Amino acid sequence: MNDILAYAETDPVLAENDDGAREAALRTELLVQQYELLAREDRAILFVVAGLDGAGKGSAVNLLNEWMDPRHIRTLAFGTPTPEELARPMMWRYWRELPARGRIGIVFGSWYQALFAQAARRARDEEALESMAAAVRRFEAMLVADHVQVVKLWFHLSRDAQRARCARLAANPDTAWRVSPDDLKVAKRFARLREAGERVIASTHAEPCPWIVVPSADDRFRAMRTGEVVLAALRTPPPAPSFAKPVKVADGRLDNLDYGDAAMKRGAYEKELMHWQARVGRAVRQARFGRRSLVLVFEGKDAAGKGGAIRRVGHALDVRQYRIVPISAPNDIERAHPYLWRFWQHAPTPGRVTIFDRSWYGRVLAERVERFASRRDWMRAYEEIDDFEAQWVAHGAILVKFWLSISDDEQLKRFREREKTAFKNFKITPDDWRNRRKGSQYRRAAADMLAHTDTPHAPWHVIATDDKRTARVQVLRTVAQALERALSTGDET
Amino acid sequence: MNDILAYAETDPVLAENDDGAREAALRTELLVQQYELLAREDRAILFVVAGLDGAGKGSAVNLLNEWMDPRHIRTLAFGTPTPEELARPMMWRYWRELPARGRIGIVFGSWYQALFAQAARRARDEEALESMAAAVRRFEAMLVADHVQVVKLWFHLSRDAQRARCARLAANPDTAWRVSPDDLKVAKRFARLREAGERVIASTHAEPCPWIVVPSADDRFRAMRTGEVVLAALRTPPPAPSFAKPVKVADGRLDNLDYGDAAMKRGAYEKELMHWQARVGRAVRQARFGRRSLVLVFEGKDAAGKGGAIRRVGHALDVRQYRIVPISAPNDIERAHPYLWRFWQHAPTPGRVTIFDRSWYGRVLAERVERFASRRDWMRAYEEIDDFEAQWVAHGAILVKFWLSISDDEQLKRFREREKTAFKNFKITPDDWRNRRKGSQYRRAAADMLAHTDTPHAPWHVIATDDKRTARVQVLRTVAQALERALSTGDET
């Protein structure tokens, strides 16, 4: 990339003989394409607006709202994080506002804010910058793979033109409000800001989301160019992101699992259970826990004992402090958003416990086996999930994942029991029997999941559940120990 | 009501010879009924938990979570309002968490918090108390009418038993955390708190949501009684709330509307429009507006010019400051919640503008005419909407409602135009033609709406839109004047 900003600094203007016919045609076509997007609902489009302050970003977006149907465009303006936003992992505020398929979002103050701030520092931390840029590239590639087209516009103009534009606006009482103190400081720091911009662009100018630089000195040129870029995006879906097949790794824990043969005695069970429940209870009432959060994930085959284990964990907690999130097939709204969107809605907040009864691992388990997800979709999910969990952990979440493993014989026994018992009858459906017949496929999916997503910050705990009592005690002990370790060291894992 | 709390103060205990069989039967039946509720999805149930501190409310709720399937129970604990909650009208935090049909919610720290605090004041303001109680009664009746069963439990015990219970818990290190400083103060202020409780109960003990007092001195008695109350609620839907037919009133504005015959000239239009846009723009940039909000409602027949008017309003504003909320038929999630739920999601926040393109008036317009809402549902909506708008206005919203009225001839002309023009073709559907044939029914519904919901705090502005230019200028002028009036007087209307 050879000085990507240079052309914009020639401050091109729209030719005088342009008589407005081009604008009229553009507007018609924008509207037509917008309604077609809305009718097809094959993807969402997110326009990321960035670039120099005082380059007319706000005016460009205003114009788009005027030229298109603004009822189906969401302008997302992010400023200083609110207390609500600060209480959650950094990307939460962007995730929750992602447009649904068929919709258009325009983002001001996007995930480039932090990156740009780092790039513009006098003592720039190159390593931090590159790690932030890599996170941004992964995020955007994931959005594109999940049917959110990301179109990035960088508004730029020469130093003189920037200064002249601000002066012109400031002189008119009806437009003076559009000039912020930051806008006026740009000319003085132009060289540094320009270099920072180049650095940000260079580090994030990658397929499937390259930057498009919009020369912004001339209002009409900027407007037409913006309109044309938007139109091109509406007309052309993004290229499918390249797809890295996960490296083969193996996890043998399920092969060698000891399901035990002796049932724990009731007396011992009650004593043990109460002991670990008390330790969990004490841990989450420590003042230190007020700056952390606990996220529990329960996965396992039908009848493996997820519900029973979750209930015993709940019993150790104040009911006002935790929330159980049962995950089943996504609803229409969820389906219209990227896969991880619905889990981000439940991002942990300080001092709270969130218990997922099934989770984001559905993609690499049921969705894989039942072919609800394409091969490329579930294969890329391993990396996306690692990334997603790392963000929650980095924000202080103590993440404990359980694979509850039941033997085939014991599962059969429990299915039959459920059919016989009146109030357990609700717990057994034809689906359960069908899933059981696909046992080997589920086993393979579980083994792959354990191999690919057993990370240091979010390890899996495999627990044999043929003896319910032993299993429940093990779950409580694992939670207690994870909490105590995390809270005693102040370590993030 | 003759001393409703007296029996609870006898501190009844469960008979010794009760051998657990009763509990087992209760648990089975609770689970069966819960799954049936989930399968039927005919209503949601909200348990309101209130009463003396230190009466074991938390333990009772914990037990319910243990006895039933906790994955389908949401415990909603409201404490001191968060900044996010304070930025919105008071009831927002309760609205947003209402359970969907089939689900159970348990509310701690409900809308009774404020009422109880007022009742317990030394210098109690009886008038304020009664007005709060009336609001609570209306809210609960509305919930019940909208398929949310409200079951209210008041936990109570004698002063001695309360003191003894707290002392017992405090003595054990594993339960000491459950005793709060407030719990310990109860005994000293017992008489006043008891009287305040009685006052709250008396003022809100009404069909369809009477209070049920749960004697709480004995853990097992409290548990069984709570379980039985919950079971009864699961088994028995609430009685249909009584239904007050709206008083007949008339609004003649639509009969005598002058649609004009001269079109505004382009030059005058542009000058006028810019003038009022600038005034709107200046008003919302005043510092005072930072403590208020602007809510615009646009209603009107198809092709009446809602979209065009909204776009002109948007042009006066910074695109980062406003949001357009287009309202169409509710989705499944919205349908599973009370009618006003989806509008509460967009409750205004300070300094922001929300523009509704169609609105909550759908219930008394399209839903009435198309018979999507029953007669009793749309008839009770007038009062509910007035109440709803009053809450937003009381929180600082400047609410301006437009009925854009187009003549039949002009509508026909616009429909034909739309069919001919490529990019307007999206704007006309068979539904539009069908609605047009129901013109007289819609006209009557609109007249009734104007008559019943034209309140001092949220008046309707009827605007003839046959001449688009005149109409748009009128809309902008109305908005500018409403803003200026509200901001200059500091008046809430």
UniProtKB/TrEMBL annotation, chains A, B:
<keyword id="KW-0808">Transferase</keyword>
<dbReference type="GO" id="GO:0006797">
    <property type="term" value="P:polyphosphate metabolic process"/>
</dbReference>
<protein>
    <submittedName>
        <fullName>Polyphosphate:AMP phosphotransferase</fullName>
    </submittedName>
</protein>
<feature type="domain" description="Polyphosphate kinase-2-related">
    <location>
        <begin position="17"/>
        <end position="234"/>
    </location>
</feature>
<dbReference type="GO" id="GO:0043751">
    <property type="term" value="F:polyphosphate:AMP phosphotransferase activity"/>
</dbReference>
<dbReference type="InterPro" id="IPR022488">
    <property type="entry name" value="PPK2-related"/>
</dbReference>
<feature type="domain" description="Polyphosphate kinase-2-related">
    <location>
        <begin position="265"/>
        <end position="486"/>
    </location>
</feature>
<dbReference type="InterPro" id="IPR022489">
    <property type="entry name" value="PolyP_AMP_Tfrase"/>
</dbReference>
<dbReference type="Pfam" id="PF03976">
    <property type="entry name" value="PPK2"/>
</dbReference>
<dbReference type="InterPro" id="IPR027417">
    <property type="entry name" value="P-loop_NTPase"/>
</dbReference>
